[in-house]
Amino acid sequence: MAGLVGVALGAGALGAGAPAQAAAGQRVKVTGEVIDSWCYLTEIMYPEGTAHHQCALWCAAGGIPVGILADDGTVYTVLKIEGDSTSNANPKVLEIQSRRVTVEGDLYARDGINYLLIDRVVDDQGIVKLTHDDYGIQPFGE
Description:
Blueprint: H1 2-17, E1 26-36, H2 37-42, H3 49-61, E2 66-70, E3 75-81, H4 91-96, E4 100-110, E5 113-124, H5 132-135
Parallel strand pairs: 3-5
Antiparallel strand pairs: 1-2, 1-4, 2-3, 4-5
């Protein structure tokens, strides 16, 4: 029995020591709204458009990852944008928060989560989803 355990542990150690293969990114062009991932996923408040813009700015500035809610309903977590080393509190991320954009970049998918490294913003239509009449300004404005 001890011999079998030793063989099993040895085989496991061999597999654990092997370097992980980096997945290749897939080139994509995505169009949708830049969202605050926390409010969108938790549904703590209405997470889209002008009603949520101020909260989304605060969250992005505070380090909450932003995402893109694509037109087809797919959510992409933005890890990097236009050559910057981080998307946390990145001025470019703050500039496009809540806007409808088209971006190009590399998509990495793992365990059901879509990660996006954006090379460039191809089109910025500004904030087009006017939701404040229906939902008010949440939670830091009037």
